[in-house]
Write a structure and sequence with these properties.
mainly alpha, Ferritin, 88% helix
Length: 165
Amino acid sequence: MAEEKAFTELFQDQIRDLYSAEKQIVQALPKMAKKATNPQLRAGFTKHLEETRGHVARLEQIAEELDFSPRGKKCVGAEGLIEEGKEAMEEFEGDTLDAALIGAAQKVEHYEIAGYGTAKAHADLLGFTKAARLLQQTLDEEGRTDKKLSQLAESIVNVEAMQEA
């Protein structure tokens, strides 16, 4: 029984980490959208901001249902990836900046996909069916965002950045 309690605490820690990451992303996305020069990229960041607010709400719903606070942890992984994005915004401009922003955003997406996948697997093991379903919804959205970023990079942004160089 002590093992299950410890595993539940691990799950709660993962939710807190994801919550912190999503809150940081909510702060970063408007800045990324403002810096993006490609209209599709700007629109994509704006759309993902709304999705990310939904991710925060889902994590709050999971925590409320399982009777713990999602607050109290700082996600240093997301913090570092967001800092890399900030550096790119200072270092590049134009189409090259758009390419750098996509790369930075995809690093964050992949980090989130790993975190949500792990938390979902743990929710399944713990029998937290509703939490697992909510985590899967977010996981699906993060995957779609990653694919859209790849398509935009490969079909337009990277090509334009190469021509600008």
